[in-house]
Amino acid sequence: MTFAIEGKRLIDLLICGSLWINAVTYFCFSKKILMSNHFLLIGIAKSGKKNPSKQIIIQTNLTG
């Protein structure tokens, strides 16, 4: 039970961190990069996977 709670906190922290990165990206970079991050966050939120880092690397390589 403790491991499940800690895992959920870690995932919540990662999503929160991604949202902060998205906000900083809006102020620092172009709209194109912002939109790609926005779609990436939507994809992670819809998938609900425990390891979103692989998806982030794949998405970054495809759009980059």
Any chance you could write out the topology, listing elements then pairs?
Layout: H1 2-28, H2 31-47, H3 52-63
Helix pairs in contact: 1-2
Radius of gyration (Å) = 13 Å
Order of helices and strands: HHH
* Helical percentage: over 70%
The largest β sheet comes out as: none
The tally of beta strands, per DSSP, is: 0
Average pLDDT, to the nearest integer?
Answer: 66
Distance between the termini: 39 Å
Structural class of the helices, strands and pairings? mainly alpha
Q: What is the 3D form? A: flat
Strand content: under 5%
- Give the tally of structural domains: 1
Number of helices: 3
Contiguous uncertain segments of 5+ residues: none
Keywords: Membrane, Transmembrane, Transmembrane helix
Transmembrane segments: 12-29
Task: Give a structural overview.
With 64 residues, the chain is an all-alpha fold. It has one domain. The protein has helices at 2-28, 31-47, 52-63. Helix 1 packs antiparallel against helix 2 (31-47). The longest helix has 27 residues, at 2-28. The N and C termini lie far apart (39 Å).
Question: What would a concise description of this structure say?
Answer:
This protein is an all-alpha fold and 64 residues long. It is 88% helix and 0% strand.
What structural keywords apply?
64 residues; mainly alpha
